[in-house]
Write a structure and sequence with these properties.
The chain has 14 helices and eight strands. By secondary structure, the protein is an alpha/beta fold.
Length: about 400
């Protein structure tokens, strides 16, 4: 009983003890909460400070990059070169590059001795010359390549100029000038001004209400006299300006004159090439014309026949002949006037229609031209060796001769 009594506390002491413990506990809790709030606020402030510094650095770097980017452009704008920049214009010359590549090809293969420089008027051009190798000379052949080709074109032209030498023919393939092309006409200033005026009138807003009445008042008979006077004064200016059709005709290049110039250049080159063959002892001649060059070969024989009353000692061989665009004369019209052996060879690569081919053949029959012969080998390509054999056979039967001493 004694020990139990000693271990128990009175009720009033227990109550005082619990009241005394509440205050330190409350203070401790409040201190912990305040510390946590302070720590969280410090962390947020530090995070915001870091973010602000990063944003400031990013903005500074962006501003510096813009300054660096703009600085060269400012320097370029203030430089005299930028004020008047030179416009680089590349004008391709595919024909000249094509022929130059051929000359370089022959030089690389040690065949530069075949290249001859010929002169026609003020222009010089190359000719690829090969002597016959059979020991039984038959004559000389001038080969005219098609448009967008050269004198050693791998299909048809090169096999002919090389293969015919094995059968007694001396060959000369020449460079043809660049054919004229139809250019897009420039728009005249008169048309531009008129178009701008029409556009400005069409874009004017419509007038409504009182403004429309004012316009009607201004267009009254009292004001018509003034407008008539202004019209008379401006009539001299408008009549001085060219009409749209006249402006287009003045700006558009003269295609006929370009074709005539091209014709004269080709005729001069053909004449120079035939003279070169004559100087090498070849008086029995034949012209092989491919594609568009057929009309120029036929016209040369026509002029030769007209000037000399005859064109004996020359023959014409056309392969896939076509009408040259822009030529004032059709090929059939020229062929009808020729009195020489003519072979009109048509292969499977011909771009002309059957109607055009048969029409040319019918025109020759109506003229009773016994020297004209048309052979169609639609199943054969120009790469076929049978074409070369056909040409050799026709030349031997219709154009072969002997070389004069």
């Amino acid at each position: 009983m004694r020990n139990a009594f000693c271990c128990k506390l009175p009720i009033y002491l227990k109550r005082e003890f619990s009241d005394a413990m509440r205050i330190p506990l409350l203070v401790t809790l409040m201190t912990a909460v305040s510390f946590n709030l302070y720590t969280h606020a410090a962390d947020e402030e530090e995070t915001n400070l870091v973010n602000d510094n990063a944003a400031t650095e990013t903005a500074t770097a962006a501003a510096n990059s813009q300054v660096d980017t703009k600085t060269p452009s400012i320097a370029e704008d203030t430089s005299p070169e930028s004020q008047n920049p030179a416009r680089l214009r590349v004008r391709p010359y595919p024909d000249a590059e094509r022929h130059q590549s051929l000359i370089e090809y022959l030089q690389q293969h040690q065949r530069q001795q075949e290249v001859m420089t010929l002169v026609a008027g003020e222009a010089s051009f190359y000719g690829l010359f090969l002597r016959e190798r059979s020991g039984n000379p038959q004559g000389g052949i001038l080969i005219l390549h098609d448009l967008e080709q050269h004198g050693h074109w791998p299909t048809l032209v090169a096999p002919l100029r090389e293969g015919l030498t094995e059968h007694g023919w001396t060959t000369l393939a020449i460079e043809l000038p660049t054919a004229p092309g139809r250019t897009i006409p420039r728009r005249s200033e008169a048309l531009t001004d008129q178009t701008d005026t029409v556009d400005s009138i069409a874009n004017e807003p419509e007038i409504e209400g009182s403004d429309a009445e004012n316009v009607d008042t201004n267009n009254s008979p009292e004001n018509s006299t003034d407008s008539a006077v202004e019209t008379d004064e401006n009539s001299m200016v408008t009549t001085a300006q060219a009409s749209p059709s006249n402006s287009l005709n003045a700006v558009e290049p003269d295609i006929n004159s370009m074709v005539n110039t091209y014709d004269e250049a080709i005729q001069a080159r053909i004449d120079a090439a035939l003279s070169f063959l004559n100087s090498r002892g070849q008086l029995n001649l034949a012209i092989i014309a491919v594609g568009d060059s057929a009309i120029w070969a036929a016209k040369h024989i026509q002029s030769r026949q007209r000037d000399n009353d005859n064109a004996r000692g020359i023959a014409l061989l056309m392969i896939n002949a076509r009408e040259f665009p822009g030529s004032p004369l059709r090929l059939t019209q020229v062929l009808e006037t020729l009195d020489v052996p003519i072979l009109d060879l048509i292969t499977g690569d011909s771009t002309q229609s059957d109607w055009q081919i048969n029409d040319r053949k019918g025109a020759m029959k109506r003229k009773h031209l016994m020297g004209y012969q048309q052979i169609q080998q639609s199943s054969a390509s120009i790469r076929d060796t049978s074409i070369n054999r056909r040409i050799r056979g026709w030349l031997k039967s219709n154009a072969a001769g002997t070389e004069l001493p």
